[in-house]
Specification:
- This protein is globular.
- It is an alpha+beta fold.
- The protein has a domain of 146 residues: NADH Oxidase (3-Layer(aba) Sandwich).
- The protein has a 4-stranded antiparallel beta sheet.
- It has 10 helices and 4 strands; from the N terminus they run αβααβααβαβαααα.
- α1 packs across α5.
- Bound molecules: flavin mononucleotide.
- Flavin mononucleotide binds next to β3.
Length: 241
Amino acid sequence: MRQTIRRYSSRPVSESLLQSLLEEAARAQTMGNLQLYSVVVTRDAEMKQQLAPFHFNQPMVTNAPVVLTFCADYHRTTEWALQRKGHPGYGNFLSYQNAATDALLFCQRFCDLAESLGLGMCFLGTTVYKPLEIIRLLRLPKLVMPVATLTLGWPDEHPAPTDRLPATAYVHQETYAPVTPETIDRDFAAREALPENQEFVRINHTETLAQIFTDIRYSAADCEAFSAELLQALRRQGFLE
Ligand SMILES: Cc1cc2nc3c(=O)[nH]c(=O)nc-3n(C[C@H](O)[C@H](O)[C@H](O)COP(=O)(O)O)c2cc1C
């Protein structure tokens, strides 16, 4: 069973292995076969130190042997088109969405392949919280947006698998089934009853598990602030007016 790995051994991830995994991952489905993505490989300790604050100093960034920043990329395709008498028009939100989809599919394919060889990784969603700083540090040109970061290495931990909601919560037959108080109770009961989650509620001094997410981890104020930076980054990179 796959699970997120946040602690890595000192065993190096060889460049040849990384390259072959990235090449194999490029077999992922991609819009028009355009491969609307790039990945920036970070191995240099100084670069990891500089990246870390943009991921809220999560220790994996400096501890992992490799950090990968996956980017939605219409820059290369646009430059190719311009040099070949094309008329590219990709400075819009639809094109960002398509390139982000491509980049995330490429990233997920990489994860599946790397995990099948025993490598471990952590997906960092913080990439879209502080995109402006990442853009500057990695020197991303217009029409390139960071969308995901992976910290990668050989595992030095074997965490217990995390729970998942039952399929009744997220599988709908033919049309979307209403979410009601009864379906909420049915689908969240097991999660809320987990001893680790009850402990989590206790130490966070909240009344419910949901409040840890809404009031502490992903508050409305934080989401609004990070959303503003994300929109600013999309404008800076030329994907929004
Ligand atoms: C969009 C997204 C953002 C995430 N961001 C972080 C993160 O910033 N830090 C972290 O430690 N894990 C992060 N994760 C990993 C999740 O915490 C993890 O997948 C989830 O808790 C389930 O655990 P599992 O992957 O071990 O099954 C992220 C995962 C996703 C898909």
